[in-house]
Amino acid sequence: MLEPSGLAERIDSICSRMADVNAERDLLIEIEDVLAQGYIEALRGESRSRRLAERLEAIMGTLDSPGAMSEAQTLVRERQLVDASVRELRLRLRVLRDHLARLGGDQAALHG
Is the pTM of this model over 0.90? Predict the structure, then answer.
């Protein structure tokens, strides 16, 4: 599972502050920073998912070996958790990116 190091809380905090704040420079900077960190974390999660899939594929031919089925089940569960975590993070980042667009933030941040 991904450890987003407080990203979810930061995203929630920014989203809640959006209703009360006009386009302040500090808020724009914070949003851009969280987006950058969030996309890095999402890419790490996707990379982890690919490595898990590769390992799972590698052991598929050896399921008769002792412990192989158990390892395969563990890999499947872990990949499901990682993929769900990445999906949730990307959904949150999309909301934050939309807020940034409404505030007229950096156009480069809109293409994540």
Answer: no
What is the rounded distance in angstroms from the CA atom of residue 29 to the CA atom of residue 104? 12
Radius of gyration for the alpha carbons in the chain, expressed in angstroms and rounded: 18
Helix, strand, coil percent values for the chain (each to nearest 5):
80, 0, 20
Lookup result for tokens 């987006």: 35
- Cβ neighbours for 89, distance < 8 A, ≥ 6 positions apart: 2, 4, 7, 8, 38, 41, 42, 45
60-110 pLDDT, tens digit per residue, is 888 888 989 999 999 999 999 999 999 999 999 999 999 888 877 655 444
Q: Which residues, in sequence order, are CB contacts of 1 under 8 Å at separation 6+?
A: 78, 81, 82, 85
CA distance 30 to 88: 20
